[in-house]
């Protein structure tokens, strides 16, 4: 690593000052520290958010589950509040990386990083979640803007994510064996406003599958999902799987997700 200074503020206000001065925010460190070790990132100052207690925690509030940005994956997976209200979200968290990653990684860090194969972005988009920052509330539909890109402004800090409680929901992914990121992951949610389907791992970032949503809104069954194709030309291909293979997996994971939601 290159030399850098390390700060661990205890309040949001102090963290915000450091961030606006150019400090690089550190949540769980699962991406940033690895990038620094490989010298792909060289921040002069690292601002660790782990000391800000108000950024962690889970609560049920007005028909939604609110999760603090510094809440770790293992805490989401093990939370009885989440398990009872949105079991699909707890299940998603339990399948992120390995035990060590889940013990350190945070929901806020994952959402802010917006890796194109990460799991949480699919949950936010499918559930119609809202990302809360120190300055505003951003709908998930507006938050994710492509490869490692979000609507966050420079120095803006995610404080929490609120998830409306769906009628039914499920997440299924085909993991890449080495990283356990999603080769393809599909989150399906049946809500009062209709069915929402989000796909991760397929390209430059998480996206909603409009054709799948239309089919499942008419008939929320695995058979309906099976009839919907996915354009391979819109997906990426690499040594782990071609775009055609990924397109096939979207249909398979969608069918399994609907079946799980109905179980």
TrEMBL record:
GO terms for molecular function: FAD binding; oxidoreductase activity. Gene3D superfamilies: 3.30.465.10, CO dehydrogenase flavoprotein, C-terminal domain, Uridine Diphospho-n-acetylenolpyruvylglucosamine Reductase, domain 2. Residues 1-168 form the FAD-binding PCMH-type domain. SUPFAM superfamilies: CO dehydrogenase flavoprotein C-terminal domain-like, FAD-binding/transporter-associated domain-like. Keywords: FAD, Flavoprotein, Oxidoreductase. InterPro entries: CO_DH_flav_C, CO_DH_flav_C_dom_sf, Diverse_Substr_Oxidored, FAD-bd_PCMH, FAD-bd_PCMH-like_sf, FAD-bd_PCMH_sub1, FAD-bd_PCMH_sub2, Mopterin_DH_FAD-bd. This is Xanthine dehydrogenase family protein subunit M.
């Amino acid at each position: 690593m290159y030399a850098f200074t390390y700060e661990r503020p205890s309040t949001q206000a102090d963290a915000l000052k450091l961030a606006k001065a150019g400090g690089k925010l550190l949540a769980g460190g699962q991406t940033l520290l690895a990038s620094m070790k490989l010298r792909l990132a060289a921040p002069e100052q690292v601002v660790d958010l782990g000391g800000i207690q108000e950024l962690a925690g889970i609560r049920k509030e007005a028909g939604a589950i609110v999760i603090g940005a510094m809440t770790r994956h293992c805490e989401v997976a093990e939370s009885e509040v989440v398990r009872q209200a949105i079991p699909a979200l707890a299940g998603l968290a339990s399948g992120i990386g390995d035990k060590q990653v889940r013990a350190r990684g945070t929901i806020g860090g994952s959402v802010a990083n917006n890796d194109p194969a990460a799991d949480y972005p699919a949950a936010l988009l499918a559930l119609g979640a809202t990302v809360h920052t120190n300055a505003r509330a951003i709908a998930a539909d507006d938050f994710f803007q492509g490869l490692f890109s979000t609507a966050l402004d420079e120095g803006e800090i995610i404080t929490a994510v609120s998830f409306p409680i769906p009628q039914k929901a499920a997440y299924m992914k085909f993991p890449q064996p080495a990283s356990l990121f999603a080769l393809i992951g599909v989150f399906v949610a049946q809500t009062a406003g209709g069915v929402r389907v989000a796909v991760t791992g397929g390209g430059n970032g998480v996206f909603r599958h409009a054709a799948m949503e239309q089919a499942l809104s008419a008939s929320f069954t695995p058979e309906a999902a099976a009839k919907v194709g996915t354009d391979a030309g819109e997906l990426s291909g690499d040594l782990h799987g071609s775009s055609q293979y990924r397109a096939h997996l979207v249909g398979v994971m969608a069918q399994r997700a609907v079946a799980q939601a109905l179980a």
